[in-house]
# Entry
Amino acid sequence: MDILQAIFLGLVQGLTEFLPVSSSGHLVAFQQILGIEEVGATNLTFDVALHLGTLVAVFVFYWQDIRLMVNEIFLWMGELIGLKKARSAPYDKGHRVMAQMLIVATIPTAILGFLFNDLFEKMFSSTYIIGFALLITGTLLWISNRMVKGHKQPGDITPRDAVAIGLLQGMAITPGISRSGTTIFAGMIRGFTVELATKFSFLLSIPAIMGAAVLEGIKIMKSGVRFTDSLPMVTGFIVAAVTGYFAIKFLVDLINRKKLYYFSYYCWGAGIFILLYTLVFIR
# Structure
């Protein structure tokens, strides 16, 4: 892989990780269409580097919320073990509940990923699956745009809400099913405001991305692979981080203007294109 390809895939990852169009589906499709082979150890390793870049984007954009949630988690743990200082500290219900529910939502995602990891990995070799999955993503976004607006705020999130969102995030491991689109859809089903559903979706990507990176890092260490050309990976990481940040800003602004359904048309068009391309050129 050369630098231009790394920049291109970094742009794709940064834009599609947070825009509800499936980053994994786009990366696999572009890699197959452009004939991009392994970089370093595997394509999957390069994908992890790109995901870590987008993780940086989330931390930068939502730093204030993350800082307050981390503070509340430590205060909560202090209260559990009986620290007087923790008990006397101001209580931020919204950030505490949201932090707790992000933990709860991560559990069903991790269970699904563990149980069906082999099945999900096989799906990455099929552009047919990616095409059909993008059609499903477009439909979910279309439905989301026509749902009655919810009123739940961060302090109102329940364990049932978190489990439902976590389960749908687990299903979004399928390439072509948008993680952000699916979790935003799930949040809206559970009565979240659009703004909260979006924020919860982005923050929920943090443990998901970190967990995937750790698992793949373990695989790489066990394989004994040594990287001889890390420049494309570093380049992709930086590009994904920068474009990911601006993608978040763009989506938040679009949601505030009630234009989320635009992505339905894109997903439908992309899905149809991939299916036709696969039928004509790959099969």
Remarks:
- The chain has a mean pLDDT of 85.
- The first helix runs from residue 3 to 16.
- The chain has one domain: 3-282.
- The radius of gyration is 19 Å.
